[in-house]
Amino acid sequence: MLTIDSFALDLETYLGDQQIQQVRKAYHFAEAAHEGQARRSGEAYITHPLAVAAILADMHMDHQCLIAALLHDVIEDTGIPKHIISTEFDEEVANLVDGVSKLKNMFHSRAEAQAENFQKMTLAMAKDIRVLMVKLADRLHNMRTLGSLNSEKQRRIARETLEIYAPIANRLGMNNTRIEFEELGFKALYPLRSSMIEKAVRTARGNRKEYVSNILDSIKANLARDGIAAEVIGREKHLYSIYDKMRSKRRSFTEIMDVYAFRIVVDTVDTCYRVLGSVHNLYKPVAGRFKDYIAIPKANGYQSLHTTLFGMHGLPIEIQIRTVEMEMVANNGIAGHWLYKANDESSSGSHKRAREWMKGLLEIQQSAGNSLEFIENVKTDLFPDEVYVFTPRGQIYELAQGSTPIDFAYAVHTDIGNTCVACRIDRRLAPLSSTLESGQTVEIITASGAHPNPAWLSFVITGKARAGIRHSLKNQQSDESMALGRRLLERTLKAHNTSIEAIDPVRLLVVLKERNMVYLDQLLEAIGLGNQMASVIASRLVTATTESDGPVRHTPLPIMGTEGLVVTYAKCCKPIPGDPIIGHISAGKGIVIHMDVCRNMSELRNKPEETMSVRWDSHMGQEFSVELRVELEHVKGIVAVLASTITKADANVDRISMMERDAHLSTVNLVLAVRDRVHLANVIKRLRIIKGVTKITRMRS
């Protein structure tokens, strides 16, 4: 059993006497604070923080980090405040402990509580990465001692570990920690599957022992002939990775176990490439299966050469070739040679990448609306696979597999993402929804005043892009809602012979207080979104201010087409300028414009509080979508003639589909973009004179 004395003895290998004394002091402080507390296993509670500190000591973390590990539950579980820890030790230790501590507030759900905790930890670790190291060590010891909890808690903690903590360890290149998280999590979450795969692996290893030994000997002999000194190791496949490949790639157990994996560790980068040539001479390489992560490291700092060979009897052999230093980084990642000063320019690649990732998390946190949205975005950002693309100046950016030019734009800078309007991939214009591939050069075209399109959310991959788009759309909608709300309220007050400026400030404060608001802008935004009725607010504001003579008459609100997200056009009837229209006030969405004759408005006409009088503004500068059904005779090339005629009428075809009714007649459905009813009438007039067209109908509900 680990004791403070044996622990202190281990620390002598890399810490000074004074630092060890500080660690001892922290142990006795924590022991006194946790006096009388016990773990579920029945052991004294102090055994847990001591074990967490021991995990960090194996990584050679500094004495402040070890002190924080010993004290990490003191604020949360014993009621000792942060300032006491700061007085007893120092401010840096107190900040570390506070960063790891969970929030004490009440939440609506466990999911929200966990998300809040993770969000707070992210803010703390952005300042000092040791917060994350303590948290990972804390979770690792909890996973090792999971057996004392009931099965439901075991599954919940295991799922959270597999979904969040294992990917974070992977993102920081801490391969050993990730593997242990995955193995322990898999065993707790799926005990039966774990035991079955474990038995199958034991059997398979026994059957293939001789074959592995033959491959190992042949590789060693070939390297010796080429005068290359190297360590050759057979790589074991872990249970969770086998299960994950079986599930995600839909492969059988036999297919996965038929791949033989080896690692070759050498002294220099130059030797790595010599080894590659040597093994390619020994066995034939599989085309398209070579990856050079030395020249272009993974996002977590991982470096290695990967190649797949056709071995004896045609069985595939996977080879990883790396240096001793790369091996250390691959196993321990950021903990292999940790640094934590944010302004330290001497940091190695893995640490710079870790800091860049945490900086990205901070940006996502600032853009996210709430903690649940934040953690959802972080999860999407923990993909293990990356694509590597270039800016026109040759700078490399790592993105998640499946990323688009929009993801790339936000990776470069949030402002570039927000004002993106088009892109070039390898100097050719391409859709913004294109899936990027490694090696491509991406150029983003921006325009001042441009805004993100809500449709982007349906195809972006990275958490930073998703958070940036949502944040921008919220701000855009807020501004547009305030502008529309002001127009609606001014229009209603005008009917009462007054205006917003003429309202008594005291009266305005009373109305704001009634609705739990502080500022006029909040009220205007609520009106614009349809959450407050302009007529009701106006009536409250004019009480005891002015009295209108006779019935209140509202002038129709002019629709200008520039209102943005808060004024939308109904898809059921597709109104265009010139159509008689009516507005439906939809809570949270603003105003939805329908045609006056739309069937969907029939029930709402008797609800004046949900409808409003609107009209088209005389200057509409945008195009509107309209659907036509054209019935015609079978004539060769008729669809091309239709499209050409529409183009000549200065309209655009958004969509076209054709359906045969019988041997002689067909129906063509067209979705066009037109300016107004006059423009549409001109298009229809031109279509009618085409030979073979028998009937044209504008489609509406």
Q: How would the blueprint of this fold be written?
A:
Layout (H helix, E strand, L loop, with lengths): L3 H8 L5 H17 L13 H12 L4 H9 L2 H5 L3 H7 L2 H10 L9 H18 L2 H15 L6 H21 L3 H15 L1 H35 L5 E4 L4 H10 L4 H5 L2 E7 L2 H14 L1 E2 L5 E2 L12 E6 L5 E8 H9 L16 H19 L3 H10 L5 E5 L5 E5 L4 H8 L1 H5 L1 E6 L2 E3 L11 E5 L16 H33 L9 H10 L5 H9 L5 H9 L14 E3 L7 E3 L11 E6 L3 E6 L15 E6 L7 E10 L4 H11 L3 E9 L4 E10 L2 H12 L4 E6 L3
Parallel strand pairs: 2-6, 12-16, 13-15
Antiparallel strand pairs: 1-2, 3-5, 4-5, 5-6, 7-8, 9-10, 9-11, 14-15, 14-16, 17-19, 17-20, 18-19
Helix pairs in contact: 2-4, 3-4, 3-9, 4-7, 4-9, 6-7, 7-8, 7-9, 8-9, 8-17, 8-18, 9-11, 10-11, 11-12, 12-13, 12-15, 17-18, 17-21, 18-21, 19-21, 21-23, 21-24
Structural overview:
It contains 26 helices and 20 strands. About 4% of the residues have low confidence. 36% of the residues are buried. The chain is of the alpha+beta class and 701 residues long. It folds into five domains: 187 residues, Hypothetical protein af1432, CATH 1.10.3210.10; 143 residues, Beta Polymerase, domain 2, CATH 3.30.460; 114 residues, Roll (Ubiquitin-like (UB roll)), CATH 3.10.20.30; 146 residues, no CATH class; 75 residues, ACT domain (Alpha-Beta Plaits). β18 and β19 form a beta hairpin.
